[in-house]
C-alpha cells in the first residue's frame, strides 16, 4: 500500500450549461482559454506547482476531449508509476451502475481510489476556475489550526454573495456559520469550492451521507461536518480567481489577459501554467497583416487585421478581414473581407467571405436571455457560416448553416440558429 500525505480530487464532470453552445459537445473544463490552454490546465498546474503528484480527475459529461487532452499527464509532470493523474469516469458496479449525482457522490464512488493512497488529507477541487493557488500553504494553515475541514474562501461584492456558499468566521478563521447560496447573506466571504479534508473526517461523512440523493459538498457534507462539531476553518485567499461559468465572464477573463499589465499573468517563471501543446509551426503574420494587443497561438496565419483578441492555434484570418474584441478558438478559418466584432467562435468553425458578425443593436436573446447576453455573438464548434451573411448581437449559432437559414442574409440580434447534424 502506498502512502501519500495529500491527494487531489478534481471534479471535472460539469456540463457548464451556462456556456450555451460552447459546451454542447465538450465538458466545461475542456473549453479553450487564453489561446492555447484549456480551463482544466489551471487547477492541474496548481497541483504540480504545489507539490501534489497524485490527482484523480472525475469526468462525466462529454469526457472525450478532456481525456485526450490530459492523456497520461506528461505536460504537468503527472506521468508517475505511483500516483500521477488518473481519469475517473463513472463505471458499472456489480449491483448497479449509476452516474455521479452530486459533487460528494462522485467522490464517494471513488473511495477505493482514495483508499489506495491512504492519504492524511484530501484536497477537493473543481475543474472550472481560472486562478493560481499554492495548495501547500493552505495545507499548512489546515495543520496549524488542527482543522478537520478547511474551506478556501475569498471576499466577493456583497451584491454577488447570494450566488456562493457563504462562511461566517471568528477572528481566528474558525467557521461559525455556513450558508449555501443564502438569499440574505450575513457575510461576503464566499467559498471557492476548494476544500481540504482530513481523510478520516471525509470518509466518515461520505459513508454517513451515501444515500443522500444528489449528495453535494456545499449542501450536505459541509453542513453535516459543521453540525457534528468538526473543526471547520476558512482559509482566506486574496489572489486572482475567476469563475468562467457564463459567456460574459468567460469573455471578460480572456480579454483581461491582453491588458498591457494583465492582472493574471500566464507567463510567470516560478508558477508555470502547463498544457498539452500541439506540435505546430509558429504563427505567421503576412506583410499586409495588422495585429495589436492580442494573444495569437502557434500555427495561426493572419492576412487581415486582429485587434484586442485572443486567438488559438491553426487559425486563418483572410485578407481584408477585421477581428475585434473576440475569442477565436483553434482551427477556425475566417474568409476574406469579414468583420467580426465581440464574438466567441469555437473550434474548427468555417466562416465564409464577406461575413459580418456583431451587427445591430443589443436585443435580449429570445430563447435564452440569461445565457446569450453581454452583446456577444457565440458560434459553436464545427459550425459553417456561409458567405455574405450578417449575424447580430446576443446571438447563438451552431451547426452547418446555409444561406437559406438566414432571413434576407441576416440573423437578427437576439436570435438563435441551431442546426442538427455534423459537418461531413
Can you walk me through this structure?
With 424 residues, the protein is of the alpha/beta class. The protein has 8 helices and 33 strands. α2 links the parallel β4 (54-58) and β5. It is globular, with a radius of gyration of 23 Å. The N and C termini lie far apart (50 Å). The relative contact order is 0.12.
Low-confidence stretches: 92-97
Main beta sheet: 7 strands, mixed
Computed over alpha carbons, the radius of gyration is 23 Å
N→C terminal distance: 50 Å
| Estimated share of beta-strand residues | 25-35%
What strand order characterises the main sheet? 5-4-1-6-11-8-12
- Overall mean pLDDT score? 88
Structural shape: globular
How many β-strand stretches?
33
Helix content: 10-25%
Structural class per helix/strand content?
alpha/beta
Q: Tell me the number of helical segments per DSSP (H or I, 4 or more residues long).
A: 8
Structural topology:
Elements: E1 6-11, E2 32-33, E3 37-38, H1 41-49, E4 54-58, H2 64-70, E5 84-88, H3 103-108, H4 111-117, E6 121-126, E7 129-131, H5 135-144, E8 149-155, E9 165-169, E10 175-180, E11 189-198, H6 199-208, H7 217-228, E12 232-236, E13 241-243, H8 247-256, E14 284-285, E15 290-292, E16 295-296, E17 301-302, E18 305-307, E19 310-311, E20 316-317, E21 322-324, E22 327-328, E23 333-334, E24 339-341, E25 343-345, E26 350-351, E27 356-359, E28 377-379, E29 384-385, E30 390-392, E31 395-398, E32 410-411, E33 416-418
Parallel strand pairs: 1-4, 1-6, 4-5, 8-12, 14-17, 15-18, 16-19, 17-20, 18-21, 19-22, 20-23, 21-24, 22-25, 23-26, 24-27, 25-28, 26-29, 27-30, 28-31, 30-32, 31-33
Antiparallel strand pairs: 2-3, 6-11, 7-13, 8-11, 9-10
